[in-house]
Amino acid sequence: MYVAVKGGEAAILATHDLIAEARRGNEAVPELAVAQIREQMGLACARIMNEGSLYDPDLAALALKQAQGDAIEAAFLMRAYRTTLPRFGSSEPVDTAQMAIRRRVSATYKDLPGGQVLGPTYDYTHRLFDFALMDGASPVAVPAAAADLLDATMPRVPDILGAEGLMEAEEPPEGDPRPFDLTREPVSFPADRDVRLQAMARGDEGFMLGLGYSVQRGYGNSHPFVGEVRVGEVSVEFVPEELGFAVDLGEITLTECQMVNQFNGTKDVPPQFTRGYGLAFGHAERKAMSMSLVDRALKAREFGEAAEYPAQQDEFVLYHSDNVEAAGFVEHLKLPHYVDFQGELELIRRIRREREQRLAGEIQETQVQETQDTLPEAAE
To answer: Mean pLDDT score of the chain, rounded to an integer?
Structure first.
């Protein structure tokens, strides 16, 4: 089709070499190891696992290295690899109430059962450069064992409110069907909540953050409270068909956020709090919080509220939060469009010629009319 393109294969092979050279950088600087990225850039790896829809810190670190830190390209690598993996079935629902807590905070209760656990967070740092990191000389504190510090029981805040009947109850759909898998089935609208949560979990963090921000500053009617954010490890179990009972596959790190929102109630439902929910791989508080804000906004139709703003439109949120798909659609514009452009170019040229001819004709008519108007005056 693009007959003007010559030597494409050779150019592509050459650019692979250039990518490898650019990725390596100055060879006098030690090369980054995948293990270093995994251990020292854990928050970036968490983002890649979420947006790549695959929990594997080693592959996330490899993707970041291969993509030179480009988060969207790294997520694309993860998704592409994910499609090659065999699918054995669905794991059992994880129980975040039994999470081995590393961090747990609430903005609704100061003295909540189990206590606040600040854990590792940048919330209270001064946002000043630590130049000692440039020399690799930053001291590393050795924390006390978590088991010696944390209470054994840490009930989730929405469960505390639910015990008083103040929080909306969450019940599985009738028959408790298997959750929809948007990676294997086409999405239709209006989308159910399981579809929306899946899409947001792998949606672009920046986009989700912007939508979450929008519902608080005028593009929504929300005054949320962070019921609880918790980060820690949970067990994943799977029931093989040949065994018939659950087998513990291991632990994964998750971040869970439950946002508490007001609801005035209806004639059938008393005033109560409603929840927005976010769950993300790894330590990803910003992602989980943004998810929970948008989740509540997307429940507008279920509560009989008007869906007027972008974050309340499931089609807008689900279609545009997928950064891999969005990047593909935008970046395909870099590919050859010679034939299309030549067609547009010829169309513009033809329109301009017709316009110039029309203007020339109008000018000629005007001149003729002016000449005719001046003849009687000359005769007088």
So the answer is: 87
